[in-house]
């Protein structure tokens, strides 16, 4: 009779349970954030808001939809442009608003946000880090790439570094493959990584100044 390996069964169950728990936690957190995004401000200005579960989500989504309709209308665009011009004149608030708007436009643009995955010497010359090529520029007539090096496990934070073009090692990793490696802390990785010919980003895949 085959003996039951309780250790393997437990580890298998753990691998099944943890992704489910993480998924439920993320969804619950997102719904909680959306639910409390608008209602507290409505209460502060004196608008009565009944405490009905899910009301905040409905109100937030409705406001987003109405703002979307307004932004696509000719007169709505004029009105929003006027509001933006007023906000831009306010110290600090204008800088925060413009930076946030530019970030949102970059993240949700139809163009791919990162063109290629590269290896860069970071944080010192003896180690390599996975980075995403975000842009390119010239410094004293020398070509540089702006590379975003995300933090392991939490890729929403990281470092934006400028690397000389000749020091970039372009790989055949896709953005999705590299992101899986970073989020898993290196546990999930492509076993054989090839280098792009001549270690150069194909022309047209990265444009200067993000254009």
UniProtKB/TrEMBL annotation:
UniProt entry keywords in alphabetical sequence: Membrane, Transmembrane, Transmembrane helix
Transmembrane domains' residue ranges: 9-31, 51-71
Keyword Membrane among UniProt keywords: yes
InterPro entries membership: COV1-like
Keyword Iron: no
Name of the protein this chain belongs to: Integral membrane protein
Provenance organism: Sulfurihydrogenibium azorense (strain DSM 15241 / OCM 825 / Az-Fu1)
């Amino acid at each position: 009779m085959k003996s039951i390996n309780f250790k393997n069964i437990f580890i298998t169950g753990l691998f099944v349970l943890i992704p489910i728990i993480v998924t439920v936690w993320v969804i619950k957190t997102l719904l909680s954030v959306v639910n409390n995004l608008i209602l507290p401000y409505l209460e502060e200005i004196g608008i009565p808001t009944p405490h009905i579960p899910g009301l905040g989500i409905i109100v937030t989504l409705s406001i987003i939809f109405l703002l979307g309709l307004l932004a696509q209308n000719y007169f709505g665009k004029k009105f929003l442009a006027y509001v933006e011009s007023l906000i831009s004149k306010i110290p600090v608030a204008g800088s925060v608003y413009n930076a946030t708007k530019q970030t949102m436009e970059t993240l949700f643009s139809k163009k791919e946000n990162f063109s290629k995955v590269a290896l860069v010497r970071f944080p010192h010359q003896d180690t390599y880090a996975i980075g995403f090529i975000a842009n390119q520029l010239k410094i004293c007539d020398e070509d540089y790439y702006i590379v975003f090096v995300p933090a392991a496990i939490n890729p929403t934070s990281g470092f934006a570094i400028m690397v000389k073009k000749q020091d970039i090692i372009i790989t055949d990793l896709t953005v999705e493959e590299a992101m899986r490696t970073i989020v898993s802390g290196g546990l999930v990785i492509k076993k054989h990584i090839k280098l792009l010919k001549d270690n150069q980003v194909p022309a047209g895949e990265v444009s200067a100044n993000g254009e």
